[in-house]
Fold this sequence. Notes:
alpha+beta; four-stranded antiparallel sheet; three-stranded antiparallel sheet; elongated
Amino acid sequence: MALGVVVGSLSVVLAFVAYEFIWGVQDLSEYLLIAPLIISLLVAMASTYFAANALLEQRKIREAGTDPVLIAHLGQREDARELVTFKVSNVGAGAALNVQLEVERPDDDADDWEKREFLQNIFDPREPFSVILQGNSIEFSLALGWQLLGQEPTKSIDKNRPISPLPPFKARLSYEDLAGGKYDGEFTIDVSEMQGLGANKSPQMRMVAALEAIAKKK
Length: 218
């Protein structure tokens, strides 16, 4: 508001000076009298602009330090990396409340849909989650990698018609922060981004397997 007032006042003064200079009497002494006023307005406008910009930056930093930020994405199970998961993660700095998840069913072939053998159907409507704390995630076991990417295994599907990749689909999130502010987000989920990722066991799972083997020897 202050920036608008200063700019408006300066615009009126500059318009008057321009009018007098072009159509009025060109008296240099008169311009010298109002020169300090114009300079003061220019300085005031610059100061107001930088002050407003600093306040906006401080507001963004404050919001970034307290607001929740939810994203929908794909992942892999740590204990079974061949299994693709669908996750909703809070990467912000505050808790997300009343999280409503809506996943749009992709335009998939009916035969392929049956062969995918989803472990959890994330496309059905569900009740909202009461809270997702900062740094936490909600994870759904979706399906095996080849069932989503269309990679043909050895025996599990019809050799004459392999499964095609699952088409991209949209996931919509709506949630609130602790102060009652509302947020919405829409994400396009494409399973092709999982193409080529390894299904090897994580170091933690290899340690668990080694400890189990030692325990069996005892």
